[in-house]
Amino acid sequence: MTALALAARGGDAEAVEAFVRALHRDVRHYVTFLGADPQSADDLAQDTFLRALGSLHRFEGRSSARTWLLAIARRAVIDSIRHGSCRPRLSDVEDWEAAAERRQPRGLPGFDDGVALAELLDTLPADRREAFVLTQLVGLPYAEAAAVSDCPVGTVRSRVARARASLAQWLTEADGGPEAKAA
Questions:
Q1: Distance CA 75, CA 26 (A)
Q2: What is the mean pLDDT of each run of 10 residues along the chain (183 residues)?
Q3: Per-residue b/e over 82-102, b at no fewer than 16 CB within 10 Å?
Q4: Fewer CB in 10 Å around end: N or C, the chain?
């Protein structure tokens, strides 16, 4: 990835295309699980690549291109949340909740599991969710996740371990009911 980014920085159009194709899925997953609205994840991924390509001339390869790009994605999500939180949300439908519910896709394979996972991840504190998503869902090594999160590697390891423990406990409680809580 880093070699592609450096080649793209040099003006190689094929390298730019290969770089975007190679990392698009990781960026989209990352922005989705950072708390972005799933409908806006594509926009945030596109914004991330626009920011990255606009500043590619400054990429020096001191970290991997993936780490550099995910750090940009993190800032894009933060900026989006900040921008959205200061804007009023309007709806021209009286029962907007029912309308939103009807527009959700149905019958997709794994849809319920994806919703359950998203809900479980949403219950984690933001720092643990970010570390878990980076290492377990995006697949970054702990060192790269630490660089993206701007914290020590040991902190990332601790956050992932705590996130795993919390998720395992919640799943056990959900599957086993009160007996699992007592155990």
A1: 15
A2: 80 85 88 76 88 86 85 86 67 66 61 68 89 88 90 94 90 67 48
A3: eeeeeeeeeeeeeeeeeeeee
A4: C
Nearest 5°: the CA angle 126, 128, 129 is 60
Specify the residue for token string 């984690």. 124
Structure token pair of residue 82 = 């900040």
pTM of the model: 0.53
| Inter-residue contact 91 to 129 (CB < 8 Å) | no
Which residues neighbour 97 within 8 Å (Cβ) at sequence distance 6 or greater? Answer: none
